[in-house]
Specification:
It contains three helices and eight strands. By secondary structure, it is α+β, with helices and mostly antiparallel strands. It folds into two domains: 47 residues, no CATH class; 85 residues, no CATH class. Strand 5 and strand 6 form a beta hairpin.
Length: 142
Protein backbone atom coordinates (compact mmCIF):
# COMPACT_ATOMS: atom_id res chain seq x y z
CA UNK A 1 0.00 0.00 0.00
CA UNK A 2 2.70 2.50 -0.89
CA UNK A 3 1.59 5.82 -2.29
CA UNK A 4 3.01 8.48 -4.56
CA UNK A 5 2.55 12.10 -3.50
CA UNK A 6 2.92 15.20 -5.67
CA UNK A 7 5.04 17.73 -3.83
CA UNK A 8 7.03 20.92 -4.29
CA UNK A 9 10.55 21.15 -2.94
CA UNK A 10 11.94 24.17 -1.08
CA UNK A 11 12.80 25.96 -4.32
CA UNK A 12 9.26 25.46 -5.66
CA UNK A 13 10.09 22.71 -8.17
CA UNK A 14 7.44 20.03 -8.66
CA UNK A 15 8.21 16.41 -7.95
CA UNK A 16 6.77 13.08 -6.95
CA UNK A 17 7.86 11.16 -3.91
CA UNK A 18 7.19 7.48 -3.31
CA UNK A 19 6.29 6.68 0.29
CA UNK A 20 6.89 3.05 1.32
CA UNK A 21 4.09 1.18 3.05
CA UNK A 22 6.10 0.90 6.27
CA UNK A 23 6.12 4.68 6.64
CA UNK A 24 2.43 4.92 5.81
CA UNK A 25 1.58 2.34 8.46
CA UNK A 26 3.60 4.14 11.10
CA UNK A 27 2.04 7.49 10.25
CA UNK A 28 -1.44 6.32 9.26
CA UNK A 29 -3.31 9.04 11.13
CA UNK A 30 -1.18 11.76 9.49
CA UNK A 31 -1.37 10.58 5.88
CA UNK A 32 -4.26 11.18 3.52
CA UNK A 33 -4.04 11.49 -0.24
CA UNK A 34 -1.87 14.58 0.01
CA UNK A 35 0.42 16.27 2.48
CA UNK A 36 0.84 19.97 2.83
CA UNK A 37 3.99 20.73 0.88
CA UNK A 38 5.52 22.71 3.73
CA UNK A 39 5.51 19.55 5.88
CA UNK A 40 7.77 17.56 3.56
CA UNK A 41 11.48 17.86 3.06
CA UNK A 42 13.06 15.63 0.44
CA UNK A 43 16.69 14.67 0.42
CA UNK A 44 17.88 14.62 -3.15
CA UNK A 45 19.40 11.57 -4.78
CA UNK A 46 22.84 11.50 -6.40
CA UNK A 47 22.80 11.14 -10.19
CA UNK A 48 24.94 7.98 -10.00
CA UNK A 49 22.08 6.26 -8.16
CA UNK A 50 19.71 6.68 -11.12
CA UNK A 51 22.08 5.68 -13.92
CA UNK A 52 20.94 2.09 -14.15
CA UNK A 53 18.94 -0.18 -16.39
CA UNK A 54 15.24 0.68 -16.86
CA UNK A 55 15.55 4.01 -15.05
CA UNK A 56 15.17 7.39 -16.75
CA UNK A 57 15.28 11.02 -15.72
CA UNK A 58 12.37 13.29 -16.64
CA UNK A 59 13.41 16.90 -17.39
CA UNK A 60 10.44 19.26 -17.70
CA UNK A 61 12.61 22.27 -18.57
CA UNK A 62 15.59 22.86 -20.81
CA UNK A 63 17.41 24.27 -17.79
CA UNK A 64 16.96 20.95 -15.97
CA UNK A 65 18.08 19.02 -19.06
CA UNK A 66 21.26 21.11 -19.24
CA UNK A 67 21.90 20.59 -15.51
CA UNK A 68 21.37 16.81 -15.57
CA UNK A 69 23.23 16.15 -18.81
CA UNK A 70 26.02 18.47 -17.70
CA UNK A 71 26.52 16.33 -14.60
CA UNK A 72 26.40 13.12 -16.66
CA UNK A 73 28.95 14.60 -19.06
CA UNK A 74 31.22 15.49 -16.12
CA UNK A 75 30.99 11.87 -14.97
CA UNK A 76 32.02 10.65 -18.46
CA UNK A 77 28.66 9.53 -19.84
CA UNK A 78 27.84 10.02 -23.55
CA UNK A 79 25.13 9.44 -26.10
CA UNK A 80 24.92 5.87 -27.45
CA UNK A 81 26.71 6.97 -30.63
CA UNK A 82 29.72 8.34 -28.73
CA UNK A 83 29.12 12.10 -28.73
CA UNK A 84 29.21 13.87 -25.35
CA UNK A 85 26.12 15.32 -23.67
CA UNK A 86 27.69 18.77 -23.35
CA UNK A 87 25.70 21.35 -25.34
CA UNK A 88 23.61 18.58 -26.92
CA UNK A 89 20.45 17.97 -24.87
CA UNK A 90 17.99 17.39 -27.75
CA UNK A 91 15.40 18.77 -25.28
CA UNK A 92 13.52 20.66 -28.01
CA UNK A 93 12.28 17.35 -29.47
CA UNK A 94 9.92 16.41 -26.62
CA UNK A 95 10.26 19.52 -24.47
CA UNK A 96 8.45 19.12 -21.11
CA UNK A 97 7.94 15.38 -21.79
CA UNK A 98 11.67 14.66 -22.36
CA UNK A 99 13.19 11.72 -20.52
CA UNK A 100 16.84 10.65 -20.61
CA UNK A 101 18.12 7.10 -20.20
CA UNK A 102 21.70 7.79 -19.13
CA UNK A 103 22.44 4.07 -18.77
CA UNK A 104 21.74 3.51 -22.48
CA UNK A 105 22.73 7.00 -23.65
CA UNK A 106 19.34 7.65 -25.21
CA UNK A 107 16.17 9.71 -24.80
CA UNK A 108 12.47 9.48 -25.57
CA UNK A 109 9.02 10.76 -24.66
CA UNK A 110 7.76 10.35 -21.09
CA UNK A 111 4.83 8.23 -22.32
CA UNK A 112 7.15 5.80 -24.11
CA UNK A 113 9.21 5.05 -21.00
CA UNK A 114 6.06 4.91 -18.89
CA UNK A 115 4.54 2.33 -21.27
CA UNK A 116 7.72 0.24 -20.95
CA UNK A 117 7.42 0.31 -17.13
CA UNK A 118 10.68 2.19 -16.62
CA UNK A 119 11.26 3.94 -13.33
CA UNK A 120 10.92 7.65 -14.05
CA UNK A 121 12.78 9.99 -11.70
CA UNK A 122 11.96 13.72 -11.84
CA UNK A 123 15.13 15.70 -12.48
CA UNK A 124 14.23 17.97 -9.56
CA UNK A 125 15.01 15.10 -7.18
CA UNK A 126 18.60 14.83 -8.40
CA UNK A 127 21.22 16.60 -6.33
CA UNK A 128 23.87 18.78 -7.89
CA UNK A 129 27.25 17.05 -7.98
CA UNK A 130 28.72 19.35 -5.37
CA UNK A 131 26.19 18.29 -2.70
CA UNK A 132 27.93 14.95 -2.20
CA UNK A 133 26.72 11.38 -2.14
CA UNK A 134 23.14 10.95 -0.95
CA UNK A 135 21.69 7.47 -1.20
CA UNK A 136 18.01 6.84 -1.85
CA UNK A 137 15.04 8.98 -1.00
CA UNK A 138 14.40 10.20 2.48
CA UNK A 139 11.22 11.74 3.76
CA UNK A 140 11.43 13.82 6.87
CA UNK A 141 8.36 15.12 8.64
CA UNK A 142 9.06 18.56 10.13
Amino acid sequence: MSKNFKIKDKSGRDGIVHVPKEFLLQQESDVGDTWETHNLEIAEIHIKEVIKENTVIHCETEEEANRVLGMAHTLGYKWWYGKGYEDNTEWYIYKSKMCYDLFEGSYSHYDYFNSKNHTIIPSTQIADLDTGEIEGYKIVKL
